Amino acid sequence: MKVIQIHPGDNVAVALETVSRGETLESWGITALEEIQRGHKIALCDIAAGDDVVKYGCVIGHAKADIAAGAWVHVHNTKTGLSEGAEYAYHHKALPLPDTRPRTFRGFRRPDGRAAIRNELWIIPTVGCVNSIAQTLARENQDLVAGSVEGLYTFPHPFGCSQMGDDHAQTRKLLAALARHPNAGGVLVLGLGCENLTMDQFKAELGDWDERRVKFLICQEEADEIAAGSALLRELAAYAGAFRREEIPASELVVGMKCGGSDGLSGITANPTVGRFSDRLIALGGSTVLTEVPEMFGAEGILFDRCADEAVFRKAVAMVEDFKEYFTAHGQVVYENPSPGNKAGGITTLEDKSCGCVQKGGSAQIVDVLEYGGAVTKKGLNLLSGPGNDLVSATALTAAGAHLILFTTGRGTPFGAPAPTVKISTNTALYEKKGAWIDFNAGTVAQGESLDDAGERLLDFVLEIAGGRPTRSEQCGAREISIFKDGVVL
Prior knowledge:
Layout: E1 3-4, E2 12-15, E3 24-25, E4 30-31, E5 41-43, E6 52-55, E7 58-63, E8 72-73, E9 78-79, E10 104-109, E11 115-116, E12 120-125, H1 131-140, E13 151-154, H2 165-179, E14 184-191, H3 199-206, E15 214-218, H4 225-240, E16 246-249, E17 254-259, H5 270-283, E18 287-290, H6 300-304, H7 310-329, H8 340-344, H9 350-357, E19 366-370, E20 380-384, H10 390-399, E21 404-409, E22 421-425, H11 428-433, E23 440-441, H12 451-466, H13 472-475
Parallel strand pairs: 12-13, 12-14, 14-15, 17-18, 17-21, 18-20, 19-20, 21-22, 22-23
Antiparallel strand pairs: 1-2, 2-5, 3-4, 5-8, 6-7, 7-9, 10-11, 10-16
């Protein structure tokens, strides 16, 4: 099968492999009027100027000119139908979840009862001024990675000082959330001493902490901050080294879901595979988290109708409307998307991208909507406020408590969040080309594997990662954070 019509109501199909000019697609009785590259769309019938272009059973834009059956459908002849204003109504839908057998993974049990899938030491700088000190401490103390201590990492960032208002609060909230993450068996919080994110503020944001697990160091107060930091890291390593892996129910997993470098196959292979996984994990009693609010624009209704009740629906609408106001307050239109790479891969409009993006949410009920920096407290599918930017949103997913992140991509990317980041390719060619980046191939769906089989295979793989199998980004040492910023810098 060279092309796929995703929904019976679609008037375009997507090429699963390149279609040559003049090639006949017998199932639809049309001939390609030009070459249609993999991931790009071909018109299945004549589409008049101004008419809807339909994919996923949803309108993804309007024809800018007459489009003949067999023609390439893309940015040259299709435009978005989005605008800043929209009205939403709640029409609750509840869909069944798949039957699943009980599953476990070999993780770590923390004293507070939480589960973890890694047992690492993390150095959290409260301010960018101490990034170099944190990096030196991480580099010079790698001998502490031994036994059940699986890694020592720090997460440099440029913030923590010269910030005001919401930006200051978001930095404080995000860093404290990372310090609470269960994958960190020990945490060293590193400050300078004169920054406006004071250590007292950080401690207040952190709340109750275990003094065996979290240590604090203010560099200006030490004659030799490297020696002092190293001594604290040794104490943390001794504490973290006492943890051992044990069998833990899959119901305790929290998994973040993200896409980046998407292509025309993202919404056909990798994203719905993640959606099938999400439904299976939730059926087991686990939790998943979906973010990238701007990449919900145009497909919000698909999610809104699955909100568990009207209170959750109102929170979801407020999340989307707040992000639209964020765009317009900065003089930007809400539909300034997709990226050049997305377009090269076959995505034409933001609606096209969004309808593919939300496939990661599967069919489960949405149980909660989280603010940026918020944490998962309810079992099931959660929405998290965050931008589409890969590293910013992946950091927010980690801060929300995601043990690991599933990241689908049609073009590939090497980055990694603080939580293990599983890269899932939309096409087999990428999997074969970028073996050092990609963990899991969902391109097999385009070659005939069912989405249910792919989702089950992904569940098996996730449980292996949760049990200690390193991701490609972990093997490459890719661990980074990025914090959402909106206001001025002093």
